Amino acid sequence: MKSKLATLMCGAALAVTGVHAQAADMADSMTIVSWGGAYQKSQINAYAEPYKAEHPDVEVIWDESSNEAVAKLRAMNEAGNITWDLVDVVAADAIRLCDEGLAMEYDPDELLAAGDDGSSASDDFGDLIVSDCFIPQIVYSTTFGYRTDMVGDTPPTNICDVFDLEAYPGKRSLEKRPINNMEWALLCDGVAKEDVYDVLETEEGQAQALAKLDTIKDQVVWWSAGADTPQLLADGEVVMGSTYNGRLFSLIEEQDQPVAMLWDAQVFDLDGWIIPAGLPQDRLARVKDFVKFATDTQRLADQAKYISYGPARKSSAPLVGQHADLGIDMAPHMPTDPNNSKNTFLYNYTWWADYRDDLDAKFQAWLAQ
Amino acid sequence: MTDATNSPSTGPMLSADGTPLKKSLQIALRRQKLRALMLVAPLLLFVLISFIAPIADMLFRSVENDIVSETIPRTVIALEQWDYEDGGASAPGDDVYAALYVDLSEAEEFKTHTRLGSRLNYETTGMSSLLRKTGRGIGRMDTDEYTKQFEALDPTWEDPAAWVAMMQAPGVAEILPETASAWQSWQRIVANKNDVLSEEQPEDFIYTMLYRDLIAQPASAVAAYSGPGAAMLQAADSAVDGFEPISLREQFLDIDKDWADAQIWGTIKAFSSPYTAGYFLSSVDLQLTPAGIEQQPENQQIYMMLFGRTMFMSMVIMGSCILLGYPIAYLLSNLPLRTSNLLLILVLLPFWTSLLVRTSAWKVLLQQQGVINDILVWLGLVADGDRLVMINNQFGTIVAMTHILLPFMILPLYSVMKTIPPSYVRAAKSLGATNWTAFWRVYFPQSVPGIGAGSILVFILSIGYYITPELVGGTTGTFISNRIAYHISSSLNWGLAAALGTILLAVVLVLYWVYDRIVGIDNVSLG
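ok -> structure tokens follow
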């Protein structure tokens, strides 16, 4: 009798652990961190909703902390309690998180789905996997928009028009950091595109870039949030200003403001996912499942229905369709469209990882003068 | 009986139960104190745990620097023998490169070399990619030549079990010091991979250290060893002289020529101690270089200027709060209660509005195409072409912050003024004082404690303000707190942020002390 009971109890215990083990295979909730606003909405529409349709019992919690993700992840890591499962960051931040050991390294061909055209994930994403931890999602660009009603009959066509106060008087808005501004300044001071970073490496080159920026310093409004330039353009506070191309698209097409894009010398940058290092097995399994789904060819192409950022997969480009609400073709609004990308500039991540601290100190000192 | 108690010779005074009175009073007082302490304890603990401890931890980071000595401990010790000489300095010898080789082999497994790179990149530009690059290259050095030569000599060298037996034998650490030290790293690497030590063939760096040990040791020392693997060790010892030596220095230079740069080594040496003054030096525009403490180049000096600006602007904001707040508080305290309550709500209303909304409202008002400029142009006071620049500069910051902090001045002033009896001013006037004399000689001195309290509140709040200057400060209206925020959230240089914060805290405490000496903190009243 006693032994029978023991067997029964053992069996029950086994059954319980069995069920438990199965449930623990994949967590049924995950916290995804993104940038908020229209961008996060495009991710919800293109990735999260279809995923939830397939897995109705999974709860997705969204957090809008991407702009402080690096600091928060570091604090979580020190506290030993990672509450995030998937974080959307720009490539430069991904490199830093990877360096700090805060993001998980992954194998593209194992974690990501192969392209619809049969190419392997590592070929499909190609060079865009700029760090061992970075799962690319979109290509965006930092470029200029200008007020069509404030530039006279000859709208600006060249990046150097930004530095031309005679032809285009008025204020311009630039981001309050050295990245991009230093490159544009050198390009417009006669430095060849391929030499920019070599020149910027030297003290003289840095002084040259700042001297070029000095010529328009009095006429610059410095921005630190992506929404600043669209607002300044809408208010007529500035004639032209730099910001992310998706913000300008929404200003021009969705809000119908008299603004046009100056695609010249747009600086390509990448945004994508990182998985925080040290996730428990069940949560990691869920995140991997989601990432495989959310970065496949169709999903990346779908995102472009909601926002004008280019999908990071080569195989997604032919699938880009029309805007979900406006019904306009999205392809001409992509930074990667041939008409827009006649003259582009590639942001050098590894170079900036080294020079960022140094140049930022110099840039801030210059700003404060 | 009365005589007896009064006489000192009969001992201490006794209470009713026979204990000395003094003692029983002490007990009663102690119990009272204990009860008071117990009542405060929850709050005290809460403040200690959730406020004091995190701040202390954060401030401690301003001197903490153990990342260098923890990540590359052998290199730090080896570098003690090397001196940085400015100008004609040369890179250190092969011993240091060997130490770095082992250290980085382990660090690469634990991915701590990139973390070290970010840390040292704050001091010398280029360290970040140098260490990342070296981490990638460290497993691909030509040192596998040593491994091959040992294996050719005796295939047992391939056997992990033989290695384990030998390295565990007593006395081996004395004969093969560098190998033993590297072996500890190897043990940690294997454990991290969840592998079994006796099944994994050691990596090249172990063979390299073995080679170095055998070259360095006299043959007699190796011959005296008789533990496991003695035969193959002695055979190897007599053969190593014939091995082709591989310069580790050259190997590192193949990965990146910067490893020959004395500046790089000087930086590592200068920041090798577990505590550093480097962050504090950086926050006062100095820098710790291999050659000693130097001034930052002029085009990088910002912090002293920002500290100065923060102080100056906080003073201006405090001053304008006094100027604007005093009349309002005076009016409020002298109006009938019903009207003053209504006005007080108007003072408090901004408190209930989001800080961001209030700041953005100032943007709308002050910008060049904004309400104020539009009105001025409409009135013809300002030409359309040269509208006033009132935002994204110091002026904008001062206006917006004065508005935001004004209630902190009005409220203490109001509560102090409420307690000033109007009869004093009436008495002064009845004795022949003019309105101004009555106010200045009688009323104002009594309201000074309110000004003191308001000033301290406004000044201390504004010195650490960050959102408003960030939004409306442009380039000339930002505070030191904006740099602290940048280093916390963007550059991840928490050490520098902590040092800047510590200095800010110290400045506030010093000012508080000065204020106490001049005005007297007892003269401050919140009502």
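Chain B touches chain A at residues 110-112, 114-115, 117-118, 121-122, 125-129, 132, 299-302, 305-306, 367-370, 392, 470, 474-476, 478, 483, 488-494 (CB under 8 Å).
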